[in-house]
Amino acid sequence: MFDALYLTFSAVTWVIVIYKARAWFRDRGNVDLGLTALMTSGVPIVFLFSAPSVYRAFDRLTGVANLAMVFLYSAVVLFASGATILLLRWTSGKDAATRARAAARSRVAVAVVATAWAAAVVCFAVGRPDAVEHPRDFSTAYAHAPGVVAFLVLYLAIFGTSLAGLGALCPRYAAQLGPGWLAKGLRTLAAGCWLGLLYCLCKLTGFVLTWAGHDAYWLSNGVAPMSASLAALLVLLGFSLPAAGPRAAAWRRLRRLQPLWQAVTAHAPEVTLTGSRLTGRWPFADLEWRANRQMAEIRDIQRGIRRHVEPAALDIARRKAAGAALGERRRAAVVEAAALRRGLQNQITGHVPVPHADSVVITVSADPAEEHEHLALVADVYHDPVVDAVLGELREISAARRP
Question: What is the tens place of the pLDDT at every residue in 375-397?
């Protein structure tokens, strides 16, 4: 069970790490992004060596019992070192002098962590009392071995310090940013850091209890690794949300706009952008660009049919939407959908009412994200019964006016 669980976690986290690495390869001047890709690469390595079968296979290959634990914890220290450097970079100012001081502090911090971890590895090398494999109970099995004790204490100190600093800093930055995917990512990252501190506490408590003669296997080797696994997933999710969140939102918006875009561009295919960028591509490529392009093409068609929409269409739509007790945003979407459908119908028949509507585009906000959401709502209500009722009344009015 543990093999399947940890190997699955490793595979999932490798996907996230590769995603971050691809982003850095496209923007190699972004030091923070490159550092994030490097430090998060330690997480799937931790999951990989946490699988008991991989742990034992690695030790058989190297001929050193429990050496996999050193690699596992080294991957954690890699993450901790990266987190420390990020902390120093984020807390530095914007001018060159403060950035230089932050770089100097980063080098000192890395040197301190590297020295402490080198000492921990030496303690591991000289402190193991036997050659028995302990993939799941390493800390409790060696609770009375001074060398291993020093190894574990140094590891928990390095890891816990970085988690505490990152967990305290992220919510402060998120509060300054306001709503958005970056703020959500920072808060998720902070939650992962605090859960990681729970892991450190469980490990330390279980270790002390075992050393004192009160076995707490369930705490140190049960609760602790599971909390660490969840913490690692939250940390990676936090790092991924600022990039993945907008793409997921664009994909949802694209799916919602697609039926409306297909319906209106069928009457005016000349406004659509054709070319290689839209054909034969990975379906998740250029999501933001594709969603924005669809919105722009729908807006172009709306403006082009304005002269085919009579003012009465907007008045009737507002009245029927109010009568249906719709909310403000849905009322605006119904009015725009009714005007769009009516304009397309009149365009097909060649009818140009006099006077025509001043505008058939309703602007709900200066924020592009809210405008996108509004147009997606127009797509949702395009065939709403209220819109059908508006068009039905307009047809009756038109029929009554015919001689």
Answer: 889 999 999 999 999 999 988 88
Is the CB of residue 308 less than 8 Å from the CB of residue 351?
yes
Choose among 168, 5, 137, 135: nearest CA to 60: 135
Q: What is the pLDDT of residues 166-199, one digit of tens each?
A: 888 888 888 887 778 888 988 999 999 999 999 9
DSSP calls for 284-306: TTTHHHHHHHHHHHHHHHHHHTG
- Sign, CA dihedral 239-242-247-253, equals positive
Q: Which two tokens stand for residue 280?
A: 């034969």
Question: If you write DSSP's letter for every residue of 303-344 in order, what string do you get?
Answer: HHTGGG--HHHHHHHHHHHHHTT--HHHHHHHHHHHHHHHHH
Q: What's the chain's Rg over C-alpha atoms?
A: 30
Task: Kindly report whether the peptide bond that precedes residue 355 is cis, defined as omega within 30 degrees of 0.
Answer: yes
Paired tokens of 277: 């960028």
Cα separation, 81 vs 158, whole angstroms: 8
Residue 243 token pair = 């990039």
Of all helices (H) and strands (E), which one includes residue 98?
helix 96-127
Residue 136: phi and psi, rounded to 5, are: -120, -15
The amino acid that residue 221 corresponds to is: N
Contact by Cβ (8 Å): 245, 183: no
- pTM here is 0.71
CB neighbourhood size of 197 (10 A): 17
264 residue type, one letter: V
CA–chain centroid gap for 8, Å, is 19
- CB burial readout 90-120, b (16+ within 10 A) else e: eebeeeeeeeeebeebbeebeeebeeebeeb
The burial class, CB within 10 Å (0-12 / 13-18 / 19+), for 143 is buried
Of 47, 117, 110, 62, the C-alpha closest to 82 is 110
C-alpha to C-alpha distance for 384 and 147, rounded to whole angstroms: 72
CB 133 within 8 A of CB 55: yes
